[in-house]
Write a structure and sequence with these properties.
The structure holds two protein chains of two kinds. Helices cover 75% and strands 0% of the residues of chain A. Chain A is mostly helical. Chain A has one domain. The radius of gyration of chain A is 20 Å and the shape is globular. By secondary structure, chain B is mostly helical. Chain B has a domain of 198 residues. Chain B has a two-stranded antiparallel ribbon with strand order 1-2. In chain B, helix 3 packs antiparallel against helix 8 and helix 9 packs across helix 10. The chains are: A mainly alpha, B mainly alpha. At the A-B interface, helix 5, helix 10 and helix 12 of A face helix 3, helix 4, helix 9 and helix 11 of B.
Chain lengths: 334, 289
């Protein structure tokens, strides 16, 4: 089951503070990078939920994000729906698509699961790429951001939009932890560790997998809506499998199955991409080598490594310092 | 148009040509998986490497030398990869292997960009094969026929080796049960190594023969990777029969889909893959039942 250790709390607090500081002090380019990180964070949270806690390594999460983005854009610009209503419908649609994919793929395991999700993701990609309704490979433009001027907030300002994304990310993170703490989340982890035993206990394992996949689709859909609003333009490239592949790389770099780790990974990945991108156009080479090194080191990503090294010691020291009578008190606040 | 016999002949030949190219790629990948349970996502990158080596050599040494040397060069790269990375990853889980080879894709992609630049290279066909051949009432490019014949020849050779020779029997035993094969005195580790190198060489060969048809770009490895994976998953991992069946299915669905239902063509193949996975989750002809 998912627990917040002191180290996780500390890293979350540092990340939140850093994001706030960046949001208030950075210039235009810094804000763009921050928003990119925040949206990627949502996508990798969605992926970590299924891959890290359910063993369902999905290569369609990029496509799910794209479905959310395209559904929002189509409903808001083509059908002329109110942006909030369009966003709601887009997220619901993404969740439904994710649930169906999860339900169909739940029977396959390992490489077959990866390939099946890849097939569905690429199916969506090819459909959008060819579809004249959604602009084909030209993409769609003219997407508006949410209108919050009624309460004095102008989201067309980058700084405000960054803060808005940060708030949404916070809510998404709480949503993910709530899923993992619920009975459903605990059953999911049980299914990951031993599906046969969970079946023997009388659980409907495919339903559990499909439900969590659907919930993960909600998060991916939210990420998609925000991604569409951020650039105000979408292209089929958003749905391509390489987006899902990169998200998987981020999850692994950060630490699979830790929720906090993928956030660290997202920051590291985007910063590395932009910093290296200034120095050399061959930043993929560096990312590739770092990825190989991380996987071969057998550590669970950057955060997993830190957790294995300092987590236990920090736990003990804090437990001694606060003399907490029960471990629940240390771990139970969100 | 669709009533015309020559139309069907032409499209069938096109489909066969695509199938054979995919077969050259997928057979290496699928047997490597069957033997080693190792998913080498970098297989597409090796294909691109083969195309680059061939395109470079063709200018100086000629087409035939390029087609012979490119697989050898790629096999050498395979030896380095095996010694440096893959042997160490043998004991880790499939997830780690997928990720390491994913990292390799990134690294090899940029290495080819550094060595050969971003611009597309072109490779010319030999004079013998650049003409047209009259076949069953249609005039068809000789080079494409050459690919079909080459693919069929390699399929026949592999089928013969796997079914009739001692090393073929050892490979089949290794795919079936590697621990038992090792107990019977087969050096499974060396077998892996040989199969891996042959798989890499075939990927390089596929790249080399594809180079004159397509433009040689750094992204070509990524483009071919997904079709290759679809082929081996539809066919079932680990078997020659699966690889050829998957390649033919992909080639025909893709080619006829593109001419008969252009709107649906690209979705069709993914829908087919999804259908196969739902009905037979391990593919049509898996090596192990």
């Amino acid at each position: 089951m998912f627990r917040h250790t002191p180290l996780r709390h500390a890293v979350l607090a540092i990340l939140a503070l850093a994001a706030l500081m960046q949001a208030f002090t950075a210039g235009y380019f810094g804000l763009e990078i921050l928003i990119e990180i925040l949206i990627l964070c949502m996508l990798v949270l969605a992926l970590d939920l299924v891959a890290g806690f359910g063993g369902m390594v999905s290569l369609c999460h990029g496509a799910l994000m794209g479905v959310g983005a395209y559904a929002f854009a189509a409903l808001a610009t083509l059908a002329g729906l109110d942006p909030w209503l369009a966003a709601l419908a887009a997220v619901a649609l993404t969740a439904a698509v994710a649930w169906v994919i999860g339900a169909i793929c739940a029977r396959s395991h390992g490489i077959y699961f990866i390939m099946a999700t890849l097939a569905f993701g690429q199916m969506a990609y090819s459909y959008v790429f060819e579809s004249p309704l959604f602009g084909g490979d030209d993409g769609m433009g003219g997407i508006d951001r949410f209108d919050l001027t009624a309460i004095g907030i102008d989201l067309n300002d980058s700084r405000t939009f960054a803060l808005f994304c940060l708030a949404v990310l916070g809510a998404v993170y709480l949503f993910a932890t709530a899923i993992l703490r619920s009975g459903l989340g605990r059953s999911l982890t049980g299914v990951m560790h031993n599906e046969k035993r969970m079946k023997a206990l009388g659980l409907n394992t495919w339903r559990i997998k499909a439900d969590v996949f659907g919930l993960s689709g909600i998060i991916a859909g939210i990420a998609g809506v925000l991604a569409a609003q951020h650039i105000m333009f979408i292209s089929p490239g958003l749905l391509n499998w390489t987006v899902s592949g990169e998200a998987l790389v981020v999850v692994i770099l950060g630490g699979l199955g830790t929720l906090v780790g993928p956030l660290v990974g997202a920051v590291a990945f985007v910063v590395m991409k932009h910093q290296l991108g200034e120095v050399t156009t061959y930043w993929h080479l560096v990312v590739g080598i770092v990825l190989i090194a991380v996987v071969m080191s057998r550590a669970n990503g950057i955060f997993g490594w830190a957790e294995a090294r300092w987590g236990a010691r920090l736990d003990r020291r804090l437990a001694d310092a606060t003399r907490s009578p029960t471990p629940e008190e240390v771990t139970s606040d969100a | 148009m669709t009533q015309d016999l020559s139309f069907w002949t032409l499209q069938t030949l096109n489909a066969l040509q695509l199938s054979m190219l995919l077969f050259l790629l997928s057979i290496g990948l699928t047997v490597i998986f069957g033997l080693m349970h190792f998913v080498n996502l970098a297989h597409g990158a090796l294909y691109a490497l083969g195309a680059y080596i061939a395109a470079t050599l063709a200018g100086t040494a000629g087409f035939w030398a390029a087609i012979l040397l490119a697989p050898l060069g790629v096999a050498l790269v395979g030896v380095v990869l095996y010694g440096g990375l893959i042997r160490r990853m043998r004991k880790s889980g499939p997830m780690a292997q997928v990720l390491v080879t994913f990292g390799l894709i990134f690294a090899l992609l940029d290495l080819t960009r550094i060595l050969w630049g971003d611009l597309a290279l072109a490779m010319s066909m030999p004079a013998v094969l650049s003409g047209q051949v009259d076949l069953l009432g249609v005039s068809y490019p000789a080079y494409r026929l050459f690919i079909i014949v080459l693919g069929a020849a390699i399929f026949a050779a592999l089928a013969l080796v796997l079914a009739r020779t001692q090393i073929g029997a050892m490979i089949r035993a290794g795919v079936d049960n590697d621990a038992m094969a090792a107990c019977l005195g087969i050096n499974v580790e060396r077998l892996f190594f040989v199969v891996f190198c042959v798989g890499c060489a075939l990927a390089g060969l596929a790249g080399a023969v594809a180079a004159p048809l397509l433009s040689v770009t750094p992204g070509m490895g990524l483009q071919i990777l997904i079709p290759t994976l679809i082929v081996i998953v539809i066919g079932g991992l680990g078997s020659l029969k699966g690889a050829i069946a998957g390649s033919l299915i992909y080639g025909f669905v893709q080619t006829f889909g593109a001419v008969l239902a252009p709107q649906l063509a690209s979705v069709l193949i993914y829908a087919l893959l999804a259908a196969v996975l739902v009905i037979k989750p391990v593919g049509l002809f898996p090596a192990k039942g």
